[in-house]
Specification:
alpha+beta, Phosphorylase Kinase, domain 1, 2 domains, 3-stranded antiparallel beta sheet, about 40% helix, about 15% strand
Length: about 260
């Protein structure tokens, strides 16, 4: 069964070793393009070598040749699909952000930026959220590499053509955090140009969050990367937030 179709690969639901797996097979044009071929091979290598509880786990792979493939643990739902079901409770939103944030810090500590942090690249399996799509990873400081990312979540400097960094990942993480904590994206637009203008010039809208959390979120969304807050600082703020009490459901009244 086809699960998805990306620029470099088709993804199928398959079975291997008694497990359901997401099987990525490079598209025909990838075998004919040296840059795309190398990108797929790098994804295979990184998926098999990087291990973290909140990264989608690579199981088996072959980076080159006619039989090139990557088998990943199958996660049946994305955060994007989960958000379409309705707004997350504060506790679930906190779980998502702590999971994704820790996975990003792990990648940064090992010298990589993700470049494409968005709900479609966060996966849910057995109640655990995991960051996926390591095909967009690139070494910190690499100049002139292939750019990646969604305009809804891109940092302002990336719209200007600058290279990605842990600071740009922090901004994208901040957009995702705003979306799941507030219930909508901070910057919206129907065209690329409208999104560019919003990310470069508009301040993030008001949030009903506790003041400390609101300030931390706004720091992640700073336009200037040198003024931007860190993912680690935001996770500490998030962990300090007490559990929110859910409003009691009204009692049903029966009439006879």
């Amino acid at each position: 069964m086809l699960l998805g179709l990306g620029r470099t690969a088709q993804v199928f639901l398959a079975e291997g070793g008694g497990l359901e797996v997401a099987l990525k097979l490079p598209r025909k044009e990838v075998r004919q393009d040296p840059l795309l071929r190398e990108r797929f091979a790098r994804e295979v290598g990184l998926s098999l070598s990087l291990r973290h509880p909140h990264l989608v786990r690579g199981l088996w792979g072959q980076p080159y040749g006619e039989d090139a493939f990557l088998a990943l643990e199958y996660c049946p739902q994305t955060l994007e699909a989960r958000l379409q079901e309705g707004r997350l409770s504060f506790e679930e939103a906190k779980q998502v952000l702590l999971s994704v944030g820790k996975a990003l810090l792990f990648l940064h500590e090992r010298g990589f930026v993700h470049q494409d942090i968005k709900p479609a690249n966060v996966f849910l399996k057995d109640g655990v959220y995991r960051l996926g799509d390591l095909g967009t990873l690139r070494p910190v400081g690499e100049k002139g590499g292939e750019a990646a990312g969604s305009p809804h979540y891109m940092a302002p400097e990336l719209f200007k053509g600058e290279d990605p960094s842990p600071f740009s990942d922090a901004y994208s993480f901040g957009v995702v955090a705003y979306e799941i904590l507030v219930g909508k994206r901070p910057f919206r637009g129907e065209t690329y140009e409208a999104l560019l203008e919003a990310h470069l010039h508009r301040p993030p809208p008001f949030t009903p969050l506790p003041p400390a959390l609101d300030r931390g979120l706004k720091r992640l969304l700073a336009k200037n990367p040198r003024e931007r807050g860190s993912i680690g600082d935001f996770l500490e703020l998030l962990e300090d937030q007490p559990p929110k009490k859910e409003a009691p459901k009204p009692k049903r009244r029966w009439f006879f």
